[in-house]
Amino acid sequence: MNGLLGAVAQNAIFVVEFLGIVVLLFLVGYFFEKYQNKKNNVTERILSTRKVAMIGMLSAVATVLMLLEFPVPFAPPFYKMDLSELPVLIGSFAFGPVTGVMVEFCKIILKLLFKSTSTAFVGELANFSVGCSFILPASILYYLKKDKKHALVGCLVGTLIMTIFGTSFNGIYLLPKFAELFGMPLEAIIGMGTAINSNIVSVTSFVCLAVAPLNLIKGTTVSIITLLIYKKISPILKEGHRS
Fold this sequence. Notes:
Layout: H1 2-39, H2 49-67, E1 70-71, E2 80-81, H3 85-95, H4 97-114, H5 122-144, H6 148-182, H7 186-196, H8 203-238
Antiparallel strand pairs: 1-2
Helix pairs in contact: 1-4, 1-5, 2-3, 2-4, 3-4, 3-5, 3-8, 4-5, 5-6, 6-8
């Protein structure tokens, strides 16, 4: 009984930490947008009715893409690839970083409604926080000046930050937390990586050889698709927004 209560308490604390990260990242986007809007004499509300509607639509698309995940050959099966950041990045380019964070969060909530967590919420936290480490810098740089150059630089910087942050965050926090919540030795998780790549012998080599390539491929793929299609679909997204 004590063990069960302890497990419930651990999961509750983790969920609170998760929500704390959500609030923190929302505030980062909010204060940046507020400052930039004031600087440019923009009176538009950060979360207008139009934006809220678009957040709902983009979140639905992102959820579908998140559910269409697939394994990668260089990482254990609990690491999977998806393109759910595509509508998130497009939304944040169109409406700002706050919209990006909100779509990222709503995507996780919707995913949990359709498919419960299989990682004690660790995978969901990873998807949200690592996704935001890509979306926020990319959209902030684009928000400074909305042209092709800033879109390209934003995507490059976002991909680089996501790769570095995602790799570090997995090694320092997510993998140990996953092992703790599941009562699984960290060595056993590393062993799953070793079975795929004999060069994986530690947490450091695990995240460098399995996690870093995943984030790099994901960021690059989402960036390329966004840069190719954004200008074509942004007028549709923004139709009626200014009015």
